[in-house]
Write a structure and sequence with these properties.
Elements (H helix, E strand, L loop, with lengths): L2 H22 L4 H7 L2 H8 L1 E6 L7 E2 L6 E2 L1 H11 L4 E6 L5 H7 L4 E6 L2 H4 L3 E2 L4 E10 L8 H4 L5 E5 L3 H9 L4 E5 L11 H4 L5 E5 H10 L3 E3 L6 E10 L4 H16 L2 H8 L15
Parallel strand pairs: 1-4, 1-5, 8-9, 8-10
Antiparallel strand pairs: 2-3, 5-12, 6-12, 7-10, 7-11, 7-12
């Protein structure tokens, strides 16, 4: 073979090997950022990205200043501070939050109802508390005593896209018509106006949202106030496969829940969630 062409071939081979080595050992910064894991990334950048949807008292947004508060907001700040990091908050909706976590825009998402559809997209932390769903009707409407009463032909059910009530309705209602209304994070209860306007017979959402809306709209009633349905654990969400970060979050939450910090946060914001009752004794 001609000496010139032999030299070119050798140089090409060296370039190829260097290229492959660069890929294998993290020369691509995007690949390296993913491979190092979220926990390492947060320690390095000193920023933890948090997706949230407004949902008092877990997440509260001041309409005038945009300032965030709530027990979820305070808890994520505590978790970030223990890593020497600050929090960058990203507003989203319950329907879009899982996508924000999957894409890497956010490292963690605030309170989400744990259910099988969401579990296919993200991984959940240990439960923070438990909550159920309820239904909003116009005052004087006594048609709905059970779930079966709702799932009837001709009944129109209003829900917020991606919210727990929407997921519950799609899974359990086969005969009623389900309206899925797209709402903004800061106004998740807007879809319940479909009930007050007469465009829907009942609105389904988490019991807390229904209770707050009914309290401020005397023309409506919380139809299942004393018997919420669809009880579900509520947890933070992280990316699937992000085991080191999940372990950190779970251990951090365990510490907050055991030392009384989480209870204090809930009391600060007058939260009244359901919790497992545990007792400890010396043996």
């Amino acid at each position: 073979m001609d000496k010139k062409y032999t030299t070119v071939a050798i140089l090409a081979m060296i370039a190829l090997l260097l290229s492959l080595g660069n890929l294998a050992f993290g020369g691509n910064t995007g690949t390296n950022a993913v491979s190092q894991g979220t926990l390492t990334k947060i320690k390095t950048t000193r920023v933890m990205n948090v997706c949230y949807a407004v949902w008092p008292p877990a997440v509260i947004k001041d309409a005038s200043t945009g300032e965030l508060s709530g027990h979820d907001i305070d808890a994520t700040r505590l978790l970030a501070e223990s890593l020497g990091a600050t929090v960058a908050f990203h507003e989203t909706t319950f329907g879009d939050m899982a996508g924000g976590i999957q894409s890497g825009v956010c490292d963690i998402g605030t309170s989400l109802f744990v259910n099988m559809p969401r579990a296919q997209a993200i991984t959940f932390s240990r439960p923070l508390y438990y909550a159920g769903s309820s239904g909003l009707v116009r005052k004087g409407d006594a048609r709905f005593k059970t779930i079966e009463d709702i799932d009837q032909p001709g009944i129109i059910v209003a829900t917020a896209t991606g919210e727990a009530g929407n997921i519950f309705a799609k899974a359990h209602f086969k005969h009623a018509e389900i309206l899925s209304i797209d709402v903004q994070s800061s106004d998740i209860s807007r879809f319940l106006l479909e009930v007050t306007s007469g465009h829907a017979d009942i609105g389904i959402a988490d019991a807390n949202t229904i209770q707050l809306f009914a309290a401020s709209h005397p023309e409506t009633t919380d139809a299942f106030a004393s018997r919420p349905f669809g009880l579900s654990p509520v947890a933070f969400g992280v990316r699937q496969g992000d085991q080191d970060f999940l372990n950190y979050i779970n251990n951090g939450l365990l510490s907050l829940q055991t030392d009384g910090t989480w209870d204090a946060l809930e009391q600060t914001y007058d939260a009244h969630w359901l919790h497992e009752v545990k007792t400890f004794q010396i043996k």
